[in-house]
Amino acid sequence: MKLEKFHTNFQLNGVSFSSVEDLLTFTEGFCDEIHQFLETWFSKDDFVFVKTSGSTGIPKEIQLQKKQMLNSAIATGNYFNLKENTTALLCLPTAYIAGKMMLVRALTLGWHLDVVKSNSFPLRGIKKKYDFSAMVPLQLENAIDSVGLIKTIIVGGGVVSNQLQQKLQTISTTVFATYGMTETITHIAVKKLNNLKNVTFNSTEKSYYHVLPNVKIYIDVRNCLVIKAPKVCKEVIFTNDIVRLISDTQFEWLGRFDNVINSGGIKLYPEKIEEKLAKIIENRFFVAGIPDEKLGEKLVLIIEGKYQKISIYNTNLSKFEIPKETYFIERFIETETKKIQRKKTLNLI
Asked: Is residue 74 domain-resident?
């Protein structure tokens, strides 16, 4: 599938292009990662190779069909009503699918895309206003004082903490959490995090993930999400994400099947425990299970930074959800996309 053109309204950092050759010449001295991707995108191959993040396993390269990437771009544009001349900011690394898809959306839909260096402070020095951007939670946290410059933000690549959600309630920007993976060409479902009608912050569980058009969902015997999205993925995907189905098009994410802790016969969901602990812990943290002779697995709390006294009162933790031990680690191990590598970090203790 050789793509020989792009939307006539497409701009990159304020520059318009009359041909693919002009675009490739411009990006050659602009950004190697973007240039290499665009060379592949406009090649005769029907697919591109994309790296997975490695947050839940060993990073690997997989093939994604260009036609399915185009379908994903169109679906996002339709869902968020992002038409031609949309101003967008790319602040994610283009080595991974989220950054690549920002480029594909811009090329396909005719956006005016500005690219800034990918780091933890995406809006530092930015004064311009934008219609749309995509970030990871750490970037959103660090940009909270400036996000009003952007009309709509999608955030993925990690869980948005309760503390960050609280901060989002006071901003005009509409923020959506996304659910997806490299295999589904970024998100197949989104959840509104703020500007919710008739929903207070204390009941954010009323805001569920809504699947995009042409996506069907159900659960398997493990209560894990199964995704059928033929326009973006040829195969049915059996995930390791435990969910509660709200309807045929809505679900609540509970946690990872491979993170579930079996402590003395009680199943504990780390992500739900972390949601409660986020009310009292400001540093980055996570909970995990470690081997224990009596319980099988023992619940422990891992906090990034120096020792601090933690009080578990006012967290609504059940007696089984109270960590048996707390460890402090100076710096968590991360993937290149800033996701915490839980297992590798846990090995540090």
From this structure: yes
